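[job 4417] fold queue: 2 targets
>>> target A
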Amino acid sequence: MPELPEVETVRRGLAPAMEDARFERVEARRRDLRWPLPKDFAKQLEGQTVTSLSRRAKYLLVDLASGEVLLIHLGMSGSFRISKSSEIAPGAYYHDRSKDEAHDHVIFQMSSGARIAFNDPRRFGCMKLIKRAKLEQEPLLRSLGPEPLGNAFDAAMLAAACDGKKTSLKAALSDQKVVAGLGNIYVCEALHRARISPKRMASTIAQKSGAPHERAENLVDAIKAVLNDAIKAGGSSLRDHRQTSGSLGMFQHNFRVYDREGQKCPAPHCTGTIKRIVQTGRSTFFCPVCQK
């Protein structure tokens, strides 16, 4: 499933084609994705102008002049393809995108001249229309934790969220209520950068007083760094992620531990070998030598 960097990459790709543009024509080729599309979905969007395009955790938020928000989740395999005058928007192709449009489920024709196709073979994505005034009460958003790239996210906030937790640090960081937008890949990568074991109890990043331990400071810095690096690289492409240009994200070539089981730890002066374990049903990759 796309994590924060992949969704942010998609947002940045869509913004030039959508912001300040009007939905001239909307084609919903099926009635549902993960859940049914809103009633009269196409009619509700056609004629509307996009005032801004933002992101909350792993969700895209398309603000409309009407005061509504089109909430989009990519699911497991969702991607957007932008074309203009029947030509793919600029962007290098590392692998050809499928010419099969059978999974192009929603098409947006924008006044900017862009044709935007939402392709989702597994149909785990979703689209909802929500009143902006009621966005904070939206069930998909209301329980989300802080944005890890926001100014408010710091060691004190993370330590407070983990204080008293009896789960592993890996499990805590993967909990969207603790911090929004992180998933398996970037939790593994951030923990390695911070040299903290994924098996460590989450509560140990807070001192007995509740104040943040040095581990919390290091971890917050690592989370911000790995997310920013991944965004600059266009995200990570393992199976389904594509940028709106059709090109792959490239951060997978910079993984330090994720999917590197049996390889030498890349940390300076470390003699360890990357190990894989299973935590809460997901693979965790880490170095048992330098991550304590």
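>>> target B
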Amino acid sequence: MVARRTLVSASILDADLADLARDSRRALRAGSDRLHLDVMDGHFVPNITFGPTVIKRLRRVGKQPFDAHLMISEPGRYMDQFIDAGCDSITFHVEVDEPIEPTLRKIRKAGRQAGLAVKPATPLSALEPYRELIDIVMVMTVEPGFGGQSFMTDAAGKILPAHDLFRGRAPELPGGQVHVDGGVNRKSAELCGAFAAEVLVVGSTLWKKDVDIAREIRLIKALADEGYENRAGMGKVAIPHDQWVTFATLPGPVGKRLLDSMEAAGIPVIGLRAARVPGSGSRRGYELLIPASCETSAIERFGRAREQALAEVRREPSVDPRAGRGGPA
């Protein structure tokens, strides 16, 4: 079984801005390890969201950490307000046009974690002067400013080397974390895990209509952890991260029972409606799909349960609708 490693920070950028408290609670109760708060000023990025007053009022929704991501031109000017708002970590952009070191020192003096974010085109070398002052490196895998953008695989190449910024620091400094922000979903989670990202910022995919937020968070964590376990060499995944395979095709109740058991054990699984279940007459059911990267561990843990479920199906009499209602096949 893959040990739990990856954390999810739920971004509320695409949540219902008219009821952020409700959606923040939903994300935390669904298993998000923290909240990601995107602050935009309309200058550093061409969008405007909310500020420290809103964050301070949201602080009552839970005890999980609040990660503030400041996409603003003058973070130093407003830092006291964000500290007072109750942010546990505060990350701003290395690309700002003002002195960076005093702001990092202020965050750390207040007992909060200090972070620097890098846009996709910004090299990690821009962070070198501040390696002794940061607790977080945030690798942006989209251009900052808007939610719902597609994951930039080229930018993700900075995730693994970002860890080098925390190596060789003074021994009294705590270990740092690499966060990934932008386009993180099921498709990109395994690659992020393979590159050893500790915190994944997950936003728009959680707030789509009819999405089960708790299930989505479980799947993303599991995929990222699988990617971390299966990486080969320099952060490459051993199996393509978007390859899914069929684990079993079973009638409704039997398939749902196995799906629930696998999900509860942390194995990412998707149940698709199958047109016909082999060996069960005309009955419909579930085709259970799992990532190819975790097929071996799934067979080790649930191979016997799968065989028992298939045997149960074979023992049940199949029904042929041409034989009349309830008649034998």
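[job 4417] complete. Note on B: The first helix runs from residue 20 to 29.
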